[in-house]
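Protocol step 4 of 6: structure prediction from sequence.
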Amino acid sequence: MKTENCGKKNLKNKCLSLLGIVLCVLFLPILIFNITVLIEMIIHPNQPTSFLGVYPLVVVTDSMDDGREDAIRKGDLILVDKLNDRELKVGDIITYMYNNIAITHRVIRIDSIDGKPSIYVTKGDANQLYDDWLITKENIIGIYDDRIPQVGRVILFFQTPIGMVLCIGIPVVSLILYDFMRRRTVSEINNHVTGALQAEIDRLKKITGEFSESIHQEENSSENPPQRNP
């Protein structure tokens, strides 16, 4: 019965430890992402944060949601590649800065000056009107590559005070619980082993005592042999 209880406790501890590791694996990337975003916002307050040449941006309006299946929707996380030296064409979806805000719209016209593309006219796929401001290549930070549906809502939540507390607190609490369970499991195993060793020592002492007593009795018998009557 004692062995069965120890087995159940060990299984429970292993499950809790595994849960803690899984939670840490899930929340640690989000925590790193949030910390990186905060640092980048402090260093470059007027530019989005980039990772390895890619801007992960959260869509906060429905200006590109024209009802198509692959449309960019509010709450999506979009991946925008740095423009570098790429040439833009009509139909490309670009991200540009306007009044310190990143806007992702489609290029519908390119005006040239002296034979060189200079002014880009854009429009949201769901909007009726063109964007009424001039966009030059200096304003453009990248070109749209792909989207991850609705992941942006999760990222926005974890950037709120409650989300940050959860994002930091859950991995920390999980690590503390994991360490506590590990220490308790080791302690229980040590106690079990110590108890088993003590029981074996007591058994050996008992056997040794019985053996010593038997030898002592034999010695007494040999020193005092029984006397015969004449």
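Step 5 (inspection) to follow. The beta strands are 54-58, 77-82, 93-98, 101-113, 116-123, 140-148.
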